[in-house]
Structure formats: structure tokens, C-alpha cells
Amino acid sequence: RPHTIGGLVPLVVHDLDGDGAAEIVARLAGEAGDVVVLGAGDQALPPLPATLVDARPLPPGVDDPAVAEIWGRAETLVTIGLPRRSAAELAAVSRLSGPVAQDMLYRTGEIDASIGDDEAAARHFEAAAARPDLAERALGGAAAARRRRGEFAAAEELARRRLAVAEPAARPAIAAELA
User: What is the pLDDT of residues 149-172, one digit of tens each?
Assistant: First the structure.
């Protein structure tokens, strides 16, 4: 159960306005909607960057409340414009998450790719590919990130690995990437 302070659940402490002092982003306890910013003073905050990645629901089969809370917090960070913080938290927690670690790594790869951190995206997608049901999608994400970095030999190797694990219906499109 998350900690509450005066009926608010703190989500993140971050310097949102660049003044050197951190603000607290929080939501009302029991509510999943709007957030409030505490400590921003009476000046208008600069606009947050547009959300680059949509929030994703909790992966199927996750029944650990702690993992569900961590996932929800990370998705909230994405939707309020803090994708780097979300990616960092998911990557750190993935080491402790057991069977959903690869889901967290895959999601981290998506977030990294959306903010242009293709090196991190490739690493996270490649790690997520260790789980067979994510391997084809994860290897595709890793190959795309390597191509964007100009690492064409690595991208080709990832595409070949992807081809080997893909469903028969997906193989022609993947093979076309190798042509």
C-alpha cells in the first residue's frame, strides 16, 4: 500500500521548473487520475514535454501487488512527461521482478526508443528477448535501435535471430528486412 501524506500519494520528487529546488508530484489517495504539483510556487511551470509513449497496462499474469504498484508508478511517470525517470526505475526494478523482469525490460526499451536513447533501447530489448514469448518483438525493437545507431551488422544479426524465433506468418516480412 502506498504511503500517503495528507491524503496525497507522492509519485516523484523532481526539479520540474529548473530552479534548483525539487517539486513533489502527487495524486489523491485512491484516485488514478489527475496529479498535483507541490512546491512550484505561484509562477506558472514551463510545459512538460509531450508524452511520447502511451501508458501500458500491467502485463497479464502479474499478481504481485508490489510489482503492480511499481509498474503503475512507472506508467504514471511516462504520462506526466518523465519517461527517462520511468525507464530508469523499470530497469532497476527488473532485476528483482522474477517472471515479469523481461516485461519491464521490454517496456524500458520502448520508453528508451521513444526518447531517442537507442543504445539503452537496444540493450533493454535484447535482455527482454530472453523470454521466448517476447523474443520476436524484443529482437525487432533491438534491431531497429541498432539500425538507427548505424550499427548495421549488429542489426542484421538481431534480425536473423528474430527470423529464427518468429511465427511462420511473420517470417516473410522479417526476411525482407534482411534482403
Answer: 999 999 999 999 999 999 999 999
- Percentage of the chain surpassing pLDDT 70? 88
Contact (Cβ atoms closer than 8 angstroms) between residue 40 and residue 15: no
- Alpha-carbon distance of 159 to 154, in angstroms, equals 9
Residues 6+ apart with CB under 8 A from 101: 94, 95
Instruction: Report DSSP letters for 146-159, one per residue.
Output: HHHTT-HHHHHHHH
Sequence-ordered list of residues with C-beta below 8 angstroms from that of 58, at least 6 positions apart, any chain: 68, 71, 72
CB distance 99 to 86 below 8 Å: no
> Which positions ≥6 away from 14 have C-beta within 8 Å?
22, 23, 25, 82, 85
Q: Is the entire prediction scored with pTM above 0.90?
A: no
C-alpha 134/C-alpha 106 separation (Å) is 8
pLDDT at 94 over 90: no
Grid cell of 30 as nine digits: 485512491
Contact predicate 10/72, CB 8 Å = no
Amino acid at 172: P
Helix spans in 46-100 (H): 65-79, 83-94
